[in-house]
Q: What sequence folds into this?
């Protein structure tokens, strides 16, 4: 029987802890009370900069959050608009006309959504956004559908542009008879109605609000242009 050589075993090898090491505070665990004996405060530039960073609760971008909010637009534009109207001796108009205008716009929008869909059916129609930008998101699967889709998109683009231009003209009124300040009063009244229907979540609210807001901005730009030219 072959002999076996036994090596001496150090009984303390498995129980001796490694020598303690210290680490920069920058790699300390995310703890409210880290073990300060294991970490030290670095005096290097990177450590100083690291400690200068103040972390708080993440906040949403105020611009991105408020762009689609009525309050943001009011805060930006309302004071300027009301000052112009006050200096011109003008007031906002009766809103019934613009409520009727929205009802007609919503009806025309629904008609275009229903008549420009690739698939005809009671529950098949385009989205409001598709009509406004004049496109059809539904993909065609055959050559015939591809040609039909192109034809529908061309017709949709023309009809939606005509609809927006007509509504915008009725918001601002006839430029040959109305001053830019009077057009601004009409446009802001319409924008108030647009926010009203938006809060009621009625179909066509987004595009109607966009048309009304564009009308306000156009009137403001015309007023500013006239003030610069004297």
A:
């Amino acid at each position: 029987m072959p002999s076996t050589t036994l090596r001496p075993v150090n009984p303390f090898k498995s129980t001796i802890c490694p020598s303690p090491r210290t680490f920069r505070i920058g790699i300390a665990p995310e703890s409210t009370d880290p073990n300060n004996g294991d970490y030290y405060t670095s005096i290097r530039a990177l450590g100083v900069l690291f400690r200068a960073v103040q972390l708080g609760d993440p906040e949403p971008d105020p611009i991105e959050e408020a762009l689609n909010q009525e309050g943001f637009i009011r805060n930006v534009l309302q004071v300027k608009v009301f000052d112009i109207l006050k200096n011109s001796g003008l007031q906002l108009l009766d809103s019934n006309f613009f409520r009727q205008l929205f009802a007609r716009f919503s009806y025309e929008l629904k008609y275009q959504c229903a008549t420009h869909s690739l698939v005809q059916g009671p529950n098949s129609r385009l989205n409001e956004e598709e009509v406004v930008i004049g496109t059809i998101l539904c993909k065609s699967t055959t050559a015939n559908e591809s040609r039909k889709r192109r034809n529908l998109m061309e017709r949709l683009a023309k009809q939606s542009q005509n609809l927006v231009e007509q509504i915008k003209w009725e918001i601002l009124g006839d430029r040959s008879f109305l001053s830019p300040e009077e057009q601004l009063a009409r446009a802001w009244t319409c924008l108030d109605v647009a926010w009203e229907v938006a809060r009621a979540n009625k179909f066509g609210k987004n595009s109607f609000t966009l048309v009304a807001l564009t009308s306000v901005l156009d009137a403001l730009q015309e007023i500013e242009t006239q003030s610069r030219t004297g």
Observations:
- The two ends are 118 Å apart (CA to CA).
